[in-house]
Amino acid sequence: DIVMTQSPDSLAVSLGERAAINCKSSQSVLDSSKNKNCLAWYQQKPGQPPKLVMYWASSRESGVPDRFSGSGSGTDFTLTISSLQAEDVAVYYCQQYYNTPLTFGGGTKVEIK
Amino acid sequence: QVQLVESGGGVVQSGGSLRLSCVASGFTFSSYGMHWVRLAPGKGLEWVAFRRYDASNEYYADSVKGRFTISRDNSKDTLYLQMNSLRPEDTGVYYCAKDHFGAGSGSYLEYWGQGTLVTVSS
Fold first, then answer.
1. Which chain A residue is nearest to residue B35, measuring alpha carbons?
2. What is the pLDDT along chain B (122 residues), one digit of tens a residue?
3. How far is CA B122 from each of CA A9, A49, B83, B89, rounded to the nearest angstrom?
4. Distances in Å between the alpha carbon of B23 and those of A103, B8, B53, B103?
């Protein structure tokens, strides 16, 4: 199974400042046939279901603000919020879909400092 | 708009069974793969199972293999999860989710339901 490791576990950032969440996979999730990384990011707010934020590592889901961006390739990925807003407080998860079983990272809780 | 509505959760004793349902609307259910994912108290998301658009293949997490069965009725736009031999560690909120694709073995999860709570008591 591919193990997904997120860091940090939690992050407190001032409003308007940058937040960066890291995700590392135990093996490459690059699909060479597509030249795309099989990596997605989700946002989960308290009491709500997860919401897709990013897929193919750097493609923003429709309706997601452009302050969210994804980067990385192979085994190392980052979700960046360029200017943190109050509504961005949530737990963020990465997920690989390179192979089965699909696996998630442990989550990173983002709070306001 | 896409809607996924889960039901069937509840409190059950260890060793018992439950059947979860997820009714889909707002998209052509028979064209997309579907997942079950759970969130245990104080823990992170755990993928549970996936069924292809035409029910031809199914995939499971090792933690539920042999105990849980994912099925779908495309004529009713409904996804199911039959859970047998339940354990306390199966406690959590169970979400159904729509895959981006129809076939394959699962990809990213575009839409999620609100979830249904399963509590397994010892």
1. A102
2. 999 999 999 999 999 999 999 999 999 999 999 999 999 999 999 999 999 998 889 999 999 999 999 999 999 999 999 999 999 999 999 999 999 998 888 899 999 999 999 999 99
3. 30, 27, 16, 10
4. 25, 11, 15, 20
Cβ <8 Å between A95 and B45: yes
Q: How many CB pairs under 8 A join A and B?
A: 60
> Does any CB of chain B come closer than 8 Å to the CB of residue A55?
yes
If phi > 0 it is left, if psi is from -120 to 50 it is alpha, else beta; for residue B85 that is left
Task: Provide the shortest C-alpha distance from residue A49 to chain B (in Å).
Answer: 5
Residue of A86, A34, A37, A44 whose CA lies nearest to A59: A37
Interface test with A, best of B37, B108, B109, B114 (most A CBs within 10 A): B108
CA distance B96 to chain A (A): 10
What's the CA gap between A98 and B52, in Å, rounded?
16
Which of B46, B60, B108 comes nearest A40 by C-beta?
B108
Q: Around B8, how many Cα atoms within 13 Å sit in the side-chain half-sphere?
A: 18
